[in-house]
Amino acid sequence: MKKLLLVTTLALVVSGCATPLSSAQKRDMKFYQSKGLVVEEKNPGTAAGLGLLPGFGSFYVREYGAGIVNLLFWPASILWDPVSGYDGANVINYYATKDAISRKQKREIKNLEDSVATGKTPQADYIKLRRDIEDKYSPDAAD
Predict the structure, then answer these.
(1) Of 35, 42, 78, 110, which sits 20 to 30 A from 61 (CA to CA)?
(2) 67-95: buried (b, 16+ CB within 10 Å) or exposed (e) per residue?
(3) pTM of this structure
(4) Is 15 a domain residue?
């Protein structure tokens, strides 16, 4: 029994289970949700549900090493794979959201700069309008 526990613990450490979002990342996601900016690449509920099947939760969230380990340790892996899948989906969604927001912000700033360059927007308004764009996408500005 001790060997099984040791092998299981070692396998989990080596497999790189998904780390949940930090408290700051959770705060950011709440802000993005309030603004309707969240990108959901992976559904956390689906990831958790698939975690009940041998390794499927991990495979779903692109944790292939963990998926193989969970496949080997099934049915015991149903104790951790749903949680790992859920956390993995949230992490994927966090980074997908951050990437999409970065692209939107850059596009809006470029449009503003083009508008100033063509004279449609007065140069004097540029700094305020740029700050408005940056604040629109920044959870830190909401504090």
Answers:
(1) 35
(2) bbbbbebeeebeebbbbbbbbbbbbbbbe
(3) 0.79
(4) no
Backbone angles phi, psi at 41, to 5 degrees: -80, -40
Q: Give residue 15's pLDDT.
A: 46
pLDDT digits (tens, 9 = 90+) for 9-50: 555 544 445 689 999 999 999 999 998 999 999 999 999 999
What is the spatial distance between Cα 60 and Cα 83, in angstroms, rounded to a whole number?
A: 13
- Domain residues for the domain of 107 are 2-10+21-142
| Structure tokens that stand for 54 in this block | 């041998």
Q: What is the dihedral sign for C-alpha 80, 71, 18, 27? A: negative
Q: Is residue 16 part of a domain?
A: no
76 is a domain residue: yes
Number of domains in the chain: 1
- Write out pLDDT tens, residues 91-126: 999 999 999 999 999 999 999 999 999 999 999 999
Cα separation, 44 vs 104, in Å, equals 24
User: Is residue 139 within 8 Å of residue 31, measured between CB atoms?
Assistant: yes
CA dihedral angle for residue 90, residue 96, residue 98, residue 102, rounded to 10 degrees: -170
